[in-house]
Write a structure and sequence with these properties.
Pfam families: GntR. One of its GO terms (molecular function) is DNA binding. Keywords: DNA-binding, Transcription, Transcription regulation. InterPro entries: Tscrpt_reg_HTH_GntR (IPR000524), WH-like_DNA-bd_sf (IPR036388), WH_DNA-bd_sf (IPR036390). With 115 residues, this protein is mainly α. It has a domain of 69 residues: Arc Repressor Mutant, subunit A. Helices cover 56% and strands 7% of the residues. The chain contains five helices and two strands. The chain has a two-stranded antiparallel sheet with strand order 1-2. Strand 1 and strand 2 form a beta hairpin. Helix 1 crosses helix 3, helix 1 packs across helix 4 and helix 2 crosses helix 3. It is globular and about 50 Å long.
Length: 115
């Protein structure tokens, strides 16, 4: 799993990690039943604390996307529905727009121009 974090992103790191995993599941990189790498390995690869990764994994478990099994690690419980994936991408877009000086209304205007 190739995850990247934007250290300039104002969102907490655990939200960025959860979003990246959510996208990977939604895009089909991981399918139901697939095991994720251990939290320590993910944390090491990302250069962050393993507790941050664990918090992201717990959030995704609470959403029903992941399941924790003793002795088996963390696996994908289900797929992200299209709406949830779209909401995550829109959140990312809104954050990106804010970094460039645009607000929600500006994005709505741009979307209306595209339709």
């Amino acid at each position: 799993m190739l995850l990247t974090l934007d250290l300039n992103d104002p969102r907490p790191l655990h939200e960025q990690v959860a979003g990246a995993i959510r996208r990977a599941i939604g895009e089909g990189s991981y399918r139901p039943g697939d095991r994720l790498p251990p939290a320590r390995d993910l944390a090491l690869a990302l250069g962050i604390n393993s507790n941050t990764v664990l918090r992201a994994l717990r959030d995704l478990r609470d959403e029903g996307l992941l399941e924790f099994r003793r002795g088996r690690g963390v696996s994908v419980a289900g797929r992200v529905d299209g709406r949830a994936l779209l909401v995550q991408r829109l959140r990312d877009l809104l954050e990106e727009a804010r970094r460039h000086g645009y607000d929600r209304d500006d994005l709505i205007t741009i979307l209306e121009e595209l339709s």
